[in-house]
Amino acid sequence: MIQTIEAAVAAQGLTLPSIPRPRGAFLPWSRLGNQLFLAGQICERGGEVLYPGKVGAEFDLKAGKLAAQACALNLLASLSDAVEGDMSRVVRCVRMNGFVNVAPGFHDVPLVINGASELFIAMFGENGRHARTAIGVATLPGNAAVEVESIFEIHA
């Protein structure tokens, strides 16, 4: 059994990034009892936006999904920090909200956010399935293509 979130991410052929520095006055995560609220993360690494621009203009659906996956990896970095890397403390993903910087007429917003949802399901199995909202927006911080936030249930 995989013990750490970092190892679980590596098992997916990916690398767990460092938690991005917040672009505002907020924390990357906040805990209330057994609920862990992960602040919205854009598709960035080392302070640089990986996918700057609009899905449906600068990026197609496939690239949009990769941008959402990059957001999910940043969320997993925050989750790992909150549970001190211990996978056994993660009960399930309860909810995800996804925001896609869209060009006019782009309607596949839910398919873009699947890039994040599919990673959580691959990592946590049925406990990675979650309630979700996917919204197309006019802009995001840093002109990022995607931003995702989530709520997890954890063992205290």
From TrEMBL:
Source species, domain of life: Bacteria
InterPro entries: Endoribo_LPSP/chorism_mut-like, RutC-like_sf
Endoribonuclease L-PSP/chorismate mutase-like domain residues: 7-146
Listed name of the protein: RidA family protein
Species the sequence originates in: Vreelandella nanhaiensis
